[in-house]
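batch job 7 of whatever, protein = Diaminopimelate decarboxylase
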Amino acid sequence: MNHFQYKGTELFAENVAVKDIVAKVGSPVYIYSHATLERHFKAFDNAFNGVAHTICYSVKANSTQSVLKTFINLGGGVDIVSGGELYRALKAGVDPHKVVYSGVGKKNDEIEYALNTGILMFNVESEQELTRISEIASRMGKKAGIAIRVNPDVDPGTHPYITTGLKNAKFGITIDRAMEEYKRAATLPGIEVIGIDMHIGSQLTKVTPFVDSIEKLKIMIGKLKDLGINLQYFDCGGGLGIQYNEEEPPLPADYGKEIVAATKDLGMHLVFEPGRNIVGNAGILTATTLFTKERDDKNFIMIDAGMNDLARPALYGSFHGVQPVVKDQDGMIVADIVGPICESGDFLVKDREVPMFKQGDLMAFMSAGAYGFAMSSSYNSRPRVAEVMVKGEKFEVIREREKVEDLVRGETVASFL
Ligand code: LLP
């Protein structure tokens, strides 16, 4: 359930007509519903009522500060993968003790920054990273809380580009090496072993791969206990999918029931890193029809948003529903909806029956809250678009549309030219 619904023929974001937002802010624009963000965060959080847990929202899905602040206000922490994400989250007011730091390529200055901040834990993804964190922490006279990200070798059944928990993926330490690394970690001077972590992939539509992975990790947790290494935190990662088209992902409550059942004997503090599940359906991207082109065998609708604004269809062949902002089209047409970028991969919709948009018509790409703006770029020197948050009858610009001057900020023409 989200708060983008029609009232009569007009699409609304909560109580604001989308066309009024575009009239004021321009096109294209990302629009987020605050009520939907809250609702989805709470649904995830409530799925673990009665169990010690922290929801560490995965900043990469949508790192805009107003989005982060919405979750921080509800008691959320964050999962970060860079110093930049840490900076954003701190600016938005996150409690450092609710920050977990994942990622296969942490740089020295990022590790130092996280240690100075006093984050809860590093999710360590390689043997060398473990050694490096210990060295840096020791030099700083600190101890770094760590979990090992264990790669459980379980197939999440999702797109290959977002599958992370199979043995051939670059992520985590394989399960056959993880025991040894835990033993080594326990002897390192700059390390405090506090948890275990997994993240097996994104847009999962079944709970079974999560539970299978947890079962594998549980065996390790038991063996570590026998060695006197007691872990407090079990970070189950993110990855719970959403409905874009005809998928039927489990509800957070159902996911929660199974995860709680699988982990309850452990008595550990659970950590979750949801991204898409909370923000995906809380955002839309609106665009304007510039031109249409009808050929004998193919129709194109050219719009003012492209793969630089919403990369998912070009990158993964992802489906995003498209709806008119005002329903006044004369029927349907099979067409590609394409952007202005000079690449044939620049499509948002491919060979699909869509309303017969005409010049000037506005359309909304649904479920664009996750990995939408966050993955956008200024390719083809297109300024990145504005972002708006709606709450009830109110809306505010939470990120200004970039200007052409922003495109050359920091650039210098070499003095020898
Ligand atoms: N934790 C870690 C360590 C991750 O790598 C990710 C996502 C998450 C949590 C959050 O996963 P989520 O709950 O959002 O599924 N750009 C792709 C998705 C990439 C996911 C990367 N990692 C897309 O647009 O589908």
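notes: The chain has two domains: 4-32+280-407, 34-276.
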